[in-house]
User: What shape does this take?
Amino acid sequence: MKKQRGLKRKIKSIKSIIKENTSEFPADFYLDSYWNFRIPASRALIQYSSKIQIQLAHFLINSTKELLINKPPKLKDALVTLMIKPFDFWESELIIHKDIDSYKSFYNRNNNFQKWVPIENSKELRDYIKVIRENNLQVITLEETNLGEEQKNIFFVVGEVKMILE
Assistant: This one.
């Protein structure tokens, strides 16, 4: 793996961009349905070290908590979630659904091509669990199966997750 130069500066810049984009609750939703934010960095930088991934995950979890606290009363139906994908952290994203219909249509992945099944919290969660508990956030572990692929991936959804089980 190629050495990353200026790692501290790059991480600081990523955190600054995350803070800038999550400091206020978004007013505009894509397709009048959702708002999402992915990690603003190259895949190579994100995959360079698991320490970087955990550090950024903790920062995103804290940003999720701040968005939940700062949710405006006029958007009380909006639902805030953070998807953490340890197998490919670059694919992790913060998602705000404008309403329950958007939320349910996004998390209903039981079709002919893909399945998301809730499972018991896995060992991969242990790196993230401390900061999740400190923030009193809900978490659910999902197992993703893409039909045609034999590999199953595990990821976590943090935030307003209780309706995923319904």
Remarks:
- Strands lie at 34-38, 79-84, 93-97, 114-119, 138-146, 152-159.
- The radius of gyration is 16 Å.
- Residues 50-69 form the longest helix (20 residues).
